[in-house]
Amino acid sequence: MDPTFVLLSAFLISIIALGIFIWSMRNGAYHDSSGANVIFTAHEVGRAEDPAAASDSLTALQRTVDLRQGHTTAPTDEELVPRAEADRSSATVTFVFLSCAIGWLLLGSFAGLVSSVKLHDPDWLARYEWLTFGIIRTIHLNAVIYGWSSMAGLGLAMWMLPRLLKTTLQGGRFALLGAVLWNAGLIAGIGSVGAGFSTGLEWLEMPWQVALLLVLGGALIGVPLLLTVARRTVDHLYVSVWYLGAAVFWFPILYLVANLPGVHFGVEQAAMNWWYGHNVLGYFFTPLSQATIYYFIPKVIGRPLQSYTLSLLGFWTQAFFYGMVGAHHLIGGPVPSWLTTLSIVQSVMMVVPVTAFATNHVLTMKGYWKTLVYSPTLRFMVVAAVMYVLVSLEGTVEALRSVNTVTHFTHFTVAHAHLGMYAFVAITLFGGIYFVMPRVVEREWPYPRLIAAHFWLVVVGIVVYVVSLSIGGWLQGRAMLDATRPFLDSVAVTLPWLKARSIGGALMTAGHAVFAVHFLAMVFDLGPRRYRAALFHVARSADHA
Ligand code: HEM
Ligand code: HEM
């Protein structure tokens, strides 16, 4: 088939789909802007909510919101009792997912730090096979991706579902069983990698026999979503439900197809590898995080999204355009050039959903920026949302052939990877966990200052990480392309930047240690005890009713 024809058709189909979508929205085929109010009860618009904020901050937060929206009436017990029940229905499931996530975060961060130091100090810990770079790096990747990011994202999804659908969580046991299979698969998979059994395919290193446990676990984790949607008491599915539904539906399919044994060989295997590699980012981690941001930013400031229509436009354009971008990982590789060109075209088209996301959140936050001073959750969410826009725009530029020629095979890609999976995804998840945990254990975070310490350690850490590695990677790429310079120049030039990355990574790891200690203190009820966080009196009176 003529490649130009394939390219042009894919491009035109996406544009036509977009046109039909915009036309149907204008003709009222989708819910009008009142869809944005679904996450509030009648008296909640204008009420700030952040259980992670200490008492005085919460008062100041509400005062800042009042200045914009005028004083509003507090929600009634009739409104809040079902909310408290919804929160309680997901508490156990969420707690299990988040606890596993934090365990994996610690393991993954230390493995990342060890890998990082080895890149500028290669003899360190060289005596142990499982601590050699190829193995410990792979342990890092799998622990942070399938352990931390997946467990935390899905745990928050389980918690948001009953709130978004205004009912209790249905079928939580399926999710718990799913989590058991998922974690068992991951322990076996990381164990296999540690023992030297890796497929060698990035993001798919675990042997397919154990990967299937994650497929099964992922599918089971999707069951509560279907059951809870069926029992919902709202007419409209808020945009976060679309994102969550898409993520839990897409993951098992992507991971199953990518792990089918005996099907993918040679160049086709590489194409499949990156079809999976970028789709798991765009169709799993990104929508999980976007769902979280779309829920928590409006919820904390008590203000519905500025443009609900724009949020749906963002969702559908992402669904239309993301599917083909994976081949931008193979630019210059032995694959048909139409395939990589198509992926570059789609990478550029991603500007549409990203702009829709950015515009919507900037307009929603307009006039509310001061709330950032008082709400810990919001600080994480807003930083993450900005990082999402940055990483995506950077990715679009990075996908252009002229730029990719320099950055491919360099540390620049790793900097971009952390801008996405860390500055955007992980920071979103941190913010969500800070909001959710006081509801889950019905206690406040004992030491609010530790939240601030965590925030600054990880934000400064990731900035040092990304800036230094981007510079080092760019210099490395330029040195590799210069035929007059010996190859070793391209290695030597990166050394100071690799050391700076280790400093950034050490700050991030320290932030994670603070976070984990605080999490444990909260769970074991250590430190000052406060139970003020809104809704708890209602939850308790419901208990005694
Ligand atoms: C419009 C959006 C985006 C575009 C066009 C894009 C583009 C790219 C490009 C061109 C590469 C380098 C490929 C190579 O030379 O090997 C890359 C790598 C990567 N991107 Fe993005 N990116 C986007 C958004 C994101 C987001 C939102 C995330 C995180 C959630 C992300 C995570 C990554 C990761 C982890 C890698 C490295 C994969 C690996 O080599 O293991 N990207 N991206
Ligand atoms: C939640 C936290 C983290 C996430 C989600 C994450 C994610 C990732 C991803 C997606 C990659 C693959 C990048 C690529 O191949 O292009 C990677 C590799 C790596 N990460 Fe992380 N990371 C995290 C924390 C850390 C920390 C704290 C460090 C400490 C310095 C670190 C150091 C590394 C190193 C050294 C590599 C290997 C880079 C290479 O192959 O050259 N990461 N990480």
Characterization of the model:
The protein is an all-alpha fold. The protein has one domain: Up-down Bundle (Cytochrome C Oxidase, Chain A). It has 19 helices and no strands. It has helices at 3-26, 55-69, 77-120, 133-165, 172-194, 208-230, 239-259, 266-301, 308-322, 337-349, 351-365, 371-374, 376-398, 401-407, 411-441, 448-481, 487-492, 495-523, 536-544. Helix 7 (239-259) runs antiparallel to helix 8 (266-301). The radius of gyration is 23 Å and the shape is globular. Residues 537-545 have low confidence and may be disordered. Bound molecules: protoporphyrin IX containing FE (HEM) (2 copies). One protoporphyrin IX containing FE is lined by residues 202, 277, 281, 285-286, 325, 328-329, 347, 350, 354, 388, 391-392, 395-396, 398-399, 404, 407-408, 413, 416-417, 420-421, 424-425.
What is the CATH level 1 assignment? Mainly Alpha
User: What does the radius of gyration come to?
Assistant: 23 Å
What characteristic shape results from the CA principal axes? globular
Q: What is the total number of structural domains?
A: 1
How far apart the termini lie comes to 70 Å
Q: What would the average pLDDT be, to the nearest integer? A: 92
Give the SSE string.
HHHHHHHHHHHHHHHHHHH
| Low-pLDDT segments, ≥5 res | 537-545
| Annotation, overall tally of beta strands | 0
Q: How many helical stretches? A: 19
What CATH architecture do you see?
Up-down Bundle
Enter the CATH topology name.
Answer: Cytochrome C Oxidase, Chain A
Largest sheet: none
Structural class computed from helices and strand pairing: mainly alpha
Helix content: over 70%
What's the name of the CATH homologous superfamily?
Cytochrome c oxidase-like, subunit I domain
In terms of DSSP E residues, the strand content is under 5%
Task: Give the names of the bound compounds.
Answer: protoporphyrin IX containing FE
